[in-house]
Recover the amino acids of this structure.
């Protein structure tokens, strides 16, 4: 049994939905389908989820939201008319939006999630109805019926382990099942959304729950590129990549597959394939537990993400002081800040974090570190980018770091920090944000010579 997930652009209008159902219906193993909300139909279009967020903003600012609500209903109306479906559902959409607004206005975070869920929820119902009309037995299943129980953290839901036994029961249905992505239901019966892009997460959870033989993630590209195609012209496609490599690349900006979706799959080693709804014949990229390493696939990909800040601390004889780092980190904990990397020397330490974590709290955090840790020098640097060279093959060959640092030096890029964990899956370089694109171009040429 396969679980197939289709992203927003794959289900953005009637003709895309027809393409999706052709793909679903041509393979009897594609039993369970997870769908996103209607996404962009063209470059300047607005995703339904974003329209729903705008509706929420209007409501919370006590503004007239009638037009916004109508815009959302109209998105579905186009689909209903082109697929020749019953109009009643448009009335239900209207009623549901009004119901959420009325009952949850005093609980803004839950209201936001309830409104956002409507995008996937109604799209799934329309898609199921259309497939049934085509004579293929198909059933819409809500996340609640599917057993997707989540923590009550609005916009940041996490699956409860107890869900998996419930989800397994989906195997009993004979029909094709269409399930909306992106949200689950909490124990107190609230609709709670995963982070943005979270339909990937639903797909992964369901794939693990039903012990699928494969999780197919359909999107609008034919797989994962080895580097950002906006920077490298026609980059190569990755054929096979491990869960660990994918996690590192998604962390640093590869948006094709949500990094949180890897966790449930990784546990049961369910292979994932990223495929293109518009070119289903393309092979796609496989995300697997282990891959064969050869001389041509040592590195899987290069990514570079901007918007990092570094707190740099110097303290003479730091290495001799017990608990120094602990004191520094306690300041971060108290300010609810998470950090990503911590390269260190004997008398210095840098803490690298995403700039939005510390925004507005910089002065307070520095003062507290200064007070508590008796540092010699303390500075903060933003406008940093993190370049990640990712490849499981690096642990087996000598000389990759040499190649990469040489290419960066040739491009006259100053390396502010270097970090490589003992697993040797990735090498991280802290560079200036201005050098980010140049760094990807130059290292790409060295790692993947044409
Ligand atoms: N519709 C949601 C979003 O735009 C979730 C998804 O499509 O994965 O983020």
């Amino acid at each position: 049994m396969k679980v197939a997930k289709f992203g927003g652009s794959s289900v953005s209008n009637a003709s895309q939905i027809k393409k999706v159902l052709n793909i679903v219906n041509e393979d009897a193993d594609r039993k369970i389908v997870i769908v996103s909300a209607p996404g962009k139909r063209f470059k300047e279009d607005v995703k339904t989820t974003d329209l729903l967020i705008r509706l929420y903003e209007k409501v919370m600012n006590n503004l007239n939201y009638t037009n916004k609500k109508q815009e959302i209903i109209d998105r579905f109306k186009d689909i209903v008319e082109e697929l020749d479906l019953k109009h009643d559902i448009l009335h239900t959409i209207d009623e549901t939006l009004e119901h959420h607004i009325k009952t949850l206005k005093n609980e803004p975070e839950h209201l936001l999630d309830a409104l956002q869920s409507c995008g996937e929820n109604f799209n799934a119902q329309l898609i199921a109805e259309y497939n049934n009309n085509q004579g293929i037995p198909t059933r819409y299943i809500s996340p609640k019926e599917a057993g997707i129980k989540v923590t009550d953290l609005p916009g940041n839901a996490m699956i409860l382990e107890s869900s998996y036994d419930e989800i397994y029961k989906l195997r009993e249905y004979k029909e094709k099942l269409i399930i909306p992505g992106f949200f689950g239901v909490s124990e107190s019966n609230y609709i709670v959304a995963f982070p943005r892009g979270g339909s990937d997460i639903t797909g992964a959870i369901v794939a693990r729950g039903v012990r699928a033989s494969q999780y197919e993630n359909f999107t609008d590209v034919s797989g994962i590129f080895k580097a950002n195609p906006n920077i490298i012209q026609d980059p190569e496609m990755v054929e096979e990549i491990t869960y660990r490599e994918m996690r590192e690349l998604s962390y640093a900006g590869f948006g094709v597959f949500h990094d949180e979706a890897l966790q449930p799959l990784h546990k049961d080693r369910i292979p994932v394939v990223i495929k293109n709804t518009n070119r289903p014949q393309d092979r796609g990229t496989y995300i697997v537990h282990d891959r064969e390493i050869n001389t041509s696939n040592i590195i899987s990909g290069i990514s570079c993400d901007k918007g990092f800040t570094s707190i740099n601390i110097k303290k003479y004889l730091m290495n001799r002081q017990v608990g120094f780092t602990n004191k520094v980190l306690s300041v971060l904990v108290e300010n609810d800040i998470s950090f990503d990397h911590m390269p260190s020397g004997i008398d210095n330490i840098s803490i690298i974090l995403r700039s939005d974590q510390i925004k507005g709290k910089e002065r307070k955090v520095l003062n507290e570190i200064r007070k508590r840790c008796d540092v010699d020098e303390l500075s903060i640097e933003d406008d940093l980018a993190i370049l990640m060279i990712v490849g499981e093959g690096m642990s087996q060959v000598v000389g990759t770091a040499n190649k990469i640092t040489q290419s960066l030096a040739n491009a006259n890029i100053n390396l502010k920090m270097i970090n490589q964990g003992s697993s040797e899956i990735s090498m991280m370089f802290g560079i200036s944000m201005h050098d980010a694109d140049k760094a990807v171009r130059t290292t790409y040429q060295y790692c993947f010579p044409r």
About this structure: Residues 7-8, 36-37, 47, 49, 119, 181-182, 196-200 surround aspartic acid (CB under 6 Å). DSSP finds 15 helices and 16 strands in the chain. Residues 174 and 302 are 43 Å apart (CA to CA).
